[in-house]
Amino acid sequence: MRQAPHKLCSDRAAGVLGSVRRRAGGLSAAVVHGLPVLVAAVVLLVGVTGGTGTAWLPLLAAGPALAGTVNGPRGVLCAGLLAAATGTALALAHRVPTRELAAVLCALLAVTAASCLAGALRGRRERVLAAVRSVAEAAQQALLQPVPETVGPFQVAVRYSAAAAEARIGGDLYALVPTPYGVRLIVGDVRGKGLPAVGTAALVLGVFREAAHEEPDLLAVVSRIERSLARNLGPDDFVTAVVAGCPAAGHLEVVNCGHAPPLLVSAAGEVGAVEPAHPAPPLGLRALSGQKPFLQRLPFTVGDQLLLYTDGVTEARDHQRAFYPLAEGVARHLSDEPDRTLTALHGELLAHVGGRLHDDAALLLLRKTAAREPVAVPAGPRATPRESQTATSSAHRVTPPRPTRMP
User: In this structure, how many other beta carbons lie within 10 angstroms of the beta carbon of residue 61?
Assistant: First the structure.
């Protein structure tokens, strides 16, 4: 069973929020649809009972103008005919001169024609937007491929939110692939936004998926990504990322390239940040700094969980400009089901920011559920690290996260 990678409203809070918005949108559309009739009825009532004659006839032009905001040319034409009929009836009832009636009808005709054109153009833009959305969904399926809920002895859950209101994909990236060398995953954040960031994310994910299957060593996978970015990125572009793998029973490998430290949750419920033993620059900047990434090995036993995320989560602010406390949120909503944990976490995150994130945000939670390994490592010696020495992490390197505050 696979889960959609863009579960933006899969949690209850987001689902309720989306339901309320849909109802509010439907209600507002129904009100606007009825406004032309309401305008005509009000003008007719005032003209008949108020004794004001034709003083309110120019207000009839509001009917077709409002209809143009939600209807096509046919609906606008009906609103224009209703307004013309109402104006004619009032003019005849009050014996308005033909010249004045003709002026009112000409004004209604002009407004109706302009509203018909506006409605036709709006309908065309909506069709184009629908086509763009379908292309975005196809691009999303190709770029952020669905992640299985279960991979061997691991349970997996993903939540992704693009900051752009109509976008399904952005500059954040994630992937999880089962390989002959164990399950490997990546979560990263591309500098910048828009289509250039999406293109860079596609490049990183493509290289990662290929190298993860071919390279026995996790550092070699990172090196492949680095070389590809060095050839294709500009001098000021880079990608922060955490690449992780589970090559053997009870062990976890992590390579952090300038990214936010993952959260390691023990089976007992203790939450700690996996701080890099030796900080490394983001991908694409190694040539400038000369520093190489290090491989950290951590114990990862049954019941342990690893949360990878992007800065769109930890830098989310409420109306008082307070950052979202991710580690505390994980401790509050921790469960034996990663999907349930991220559902509650994502809902709380949206509630923290008031319903809409202002930056792309990705969450990937991996939980070990069995002692056996999902895939067998091929026979033969493992390759030695190509780029750097291996740094073995101990308990003192898993420290509680330090919330960052803006000055």
Answer: 21
- In a 3-state reduction of DSSP, which class is residue 225? helix
- Rounded Cα distance between 253 and 393, Å, is 10
Written as six digits, the tokens of 226 are: 């680095």
3 state DSSP class of 74: helix
CA angle 13, 18, 23 (to 5 degrees): 130
How far is it, in rounded angstroms, from Cα 306 to Cα 252?
9
Determine the 3-state secondary structure of 163 from DSSP: coil
Contact 178, 25 (CB under 8 A): no
Pick the range with the lowest mean pLDDT from 40-49, 85-94, 309-318: 40-49
Contacts of 11 (CB under 8 A, 6+ apart): 159, 342, 343, 344, 346, 347, 350
Q: What is d(CA 132, CA 72) in angstroms, rounded to the nearest whole number? A: 21
Comparing C-alpha atoms, which of 251, 260, 254 is closest to residue 293?
A: 254
Rounded distance between C-alpha atoms, residue 23 and residue 149, angstroms: 32
Answer yes or no: are the C-beta atoms of 404 and 314 closer than 8 Å. Answer: yes
Angle, CA of 126, 128 and 130, to the nearest 5°? 70
Inter-helix orientation angle 326-333/338-353, to 10°:
130
pLDDT digits (tens, 9 = 90+) for 106-116: 888 998 899 89
First and final CA of the chain: distance in angstroms?
45
Scan for tokens 């089901």, then name that residue: 337
What sign for the dihedral angle of Cα 162, 163, 165, 169? negative
Structure token pair of residue 281 = 């620059």
For 297, which DSSP code? E
* pTM for this model (two decimals): 0.66
Q: Are 355 and 188 in contact (CB under 8 A)?
A: no
Distance of CA 160 to the CA centre of its chain: 5
Q: Which residues pair with 154 in a beta bridge?
A: 151, 368
DSSP state of 396: G
Pairing of strands 390-392, 305-309: unpaired
CA dihedral 269, 270, 273, 275 (to 10 degrees): -130
Report pLDDT digits (tens) over 185-236: 999 999 877 777 888 888 999 999 999 999 999 999 999 999 999 898 887 8
User: Which residues, including other chains, have CB under 8 Å from residue 268's CB and lie 6 or more apart?
Assistant: none
